[in-house]
């Protein structure tokens, strides 16, 4: 988790997880495409996806029209164990009582969750599958081409071993993986699919190396600043991230500025975790210890901001922060509208009418952000 330094106008009780904060959850899913043998038209997909509707027992994943799916397996990221799944047409699922809008002739993976989604929690699955799609992955002279419309915001494309990148039409991080393959990694901030075109060409094999930068698209951590009452200087910070360090405890690298009165929630179960201190380090007792690869705990840290700086003048509110996180959401008070944002951001109205400003940073390091807002 990257350090975060903030000077805001903030400090209040934590919001209930069930409250409408749709923008905070918009980039939870991640997809990685590993391009297989050139000419095969095949690519292996790893799809990490979540479900937050309380009571849900499964997650549906439709096979893209024009693609043929094989080699399917589904895992529980919390335990690393396989999960039951069905591969059925929309007509078969409807006949089986599965709700939702289902295309009768298309195929779907129905991944069964380890447990029904608790209130305020989420269900997670990791789906592995292989697609064959001549229109998405093909050869063009000396080049291989991956051309696909990607609706998921966070993506990685791994080239076959021995291939170098010729061009990419999306701004991306590039990594040479330990096995020598090149990975193109990106997150797109807009709300519509990205039409991605990657071209690569065979080159002499290069020695593998460990990535020296954090893969910003792969990193799922996110931070929400919920500004409630500017006149009183109140804001709640919520930070979610994946813990993968083996053990029964998580050493919390909490965001800078959050007070000592924090709540740590196991997002998979919705249960609050016991928090203690080891010297200056806060430690949470995990509900499910991490004992092997493929396991993770999704943790939510919530607390009031400390050392805040209130900025109100003539009915306007000023939010100034220095961020280093990959994705940040600032939720304005009820009845306030955005007047200016100093960096590229998306702005959305929540179901309760509050405005959310989402900031995505594809590069490492801190940057200053200024938001101006006023009452409607």
Task: Give the SSE layout.
Layout: E1 5-7, E2 30-35, E3 42-51, E4 58-62, E5 68-75, E6 85-89, H1 90-95, E7 107-112, E8 123-132, E9 137-140, E10 143-150, E11 154-158, E12 163-168, E13 173-176, E14 182-187, E15 194-202, E16 222-229, E17 234-243, E18 247-252, E19 258-266, E20 271-272, E21 275-278, E22 281-290, E23 297-305, E24 312-313, E25 316-323, E26 327-331, E27 336-341, E28 346-349, E29 355-360, E30 367-375
Quick rundown:
Helix content is 2%, strand content 51%. It has 376 residues and is mostly beta strands. The chain has an 8-stranded mixed β-sheet with strand order 20-19-23-17-16-26-29-28, with no helix packed on it.
Spell out the key features of this protein.
8-stranded mixed β-sheet, 2% helix, Immunoglobulin-like, 7-stranded mixed β-sheet, mainly beta
What does this structure look like?
- The protein has one helix at 90-95; strands spanning 5-7, 30-35, 42-51, 58-62, 68-75, 85-89, 107-112, 123-132, 137-140, 143-150, 154-158, 163-168, 173-176, 182-187, 194-202, 222-229, 234-243, 247-252, 258-266, 271-272, 275-278, 281-290, 297-305, 312-313, 316-323, 327-331, 336-341, 346-349, 355-360, 367-375.
- The protein has one helix and 30 strands.
- Helices cover 2% and strands 51% of the residues.
- A hairpin with a 4-residue loop joins strand 16 and strand 17 (234-243).
- With 376 residues, the chain is an all-beta fold.
- The longest helix has 6 residues, at 90-95.
- The two termini are 36 Å apart.
- It has two domains: 5-25 and 220-375, Immunoglobulin-like; 30-202, tricorn interacting facor f3 domain (Immunoglobulin-like).
């Amino acid at each position: 988790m990257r350090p975060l330094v903030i000077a805001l106008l903030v400090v209040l009780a934590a919001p209930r997880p069930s409250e409408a904060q749709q923008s905070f959850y918009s980039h939870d899913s991640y997809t990685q495409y590993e391009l297989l043998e050139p000419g095969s038209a095949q690519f292996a997909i790893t799809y990490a996806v979540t479900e937050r509707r309380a009571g849900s027992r499964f997650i549906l994943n439709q096979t893209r029209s024009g693609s043929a799916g094989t080699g399917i397996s589904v895992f529980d990221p919390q335990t690393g164990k396989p999960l039951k799944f069905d591969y059925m047409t929309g007509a078969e699922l409807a006949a089986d009582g599965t709700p939702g809008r289902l295309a009768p002739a298309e195929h779907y993976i129905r991944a069964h969750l380890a447990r029904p989604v608790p209130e305020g929690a989420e269900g997670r699955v990791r789906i592995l599958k292989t697609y064959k799609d001549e229109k998405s992955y093909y050869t063009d002279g000396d080049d291989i081409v991956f051309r696909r419309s990607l609706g998921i915001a966070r993506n990685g494309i791994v080239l076959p071993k021995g291939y170098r990148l010729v061009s990419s039409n999306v701004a991306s991080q590039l990594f040479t993986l330990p096995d020598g393959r090149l990975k193109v990694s990106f997150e797109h901030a807009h709300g519509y699919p990205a039409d991605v075109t990657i071209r690569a060409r065979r080159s002499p094999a290069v020695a593998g190396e460990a990535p020296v930068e954090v893969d910003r698209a792969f990193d799922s951590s996110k931070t929400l600043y919920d500004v409630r009452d500017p006149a009183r200087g109140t804001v709640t910070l919520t930070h979610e991230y994946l813990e993968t360090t083996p053990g029964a405890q998580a050493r919390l690298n909490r965001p800078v500025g959050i007070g000592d009165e924090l709540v740590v929630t196991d997002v998979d179960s919705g249960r609050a975790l016991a928090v203690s201190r080891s010297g200056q380090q806060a430690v949470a007792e995990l509900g499910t210890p991490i004992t092997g690869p493929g396991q993770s705990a999704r943790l939510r840290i919530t607390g009031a901001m400390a050392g805040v700086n209130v900025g109100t003048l003539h009915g306007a509110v000023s939010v100034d922060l220095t961020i280093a996180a990959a994705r940040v959401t600032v939720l304005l008070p009820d009845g306030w509208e955005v007047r200016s944002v100093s960096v590229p951001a998306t702005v959305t109205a929540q179901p309760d009418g509050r405005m959310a400003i989402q900031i995505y940073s594809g590069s490492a390091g801190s940057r200053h952000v200024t938001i101006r807002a006023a009452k409607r």
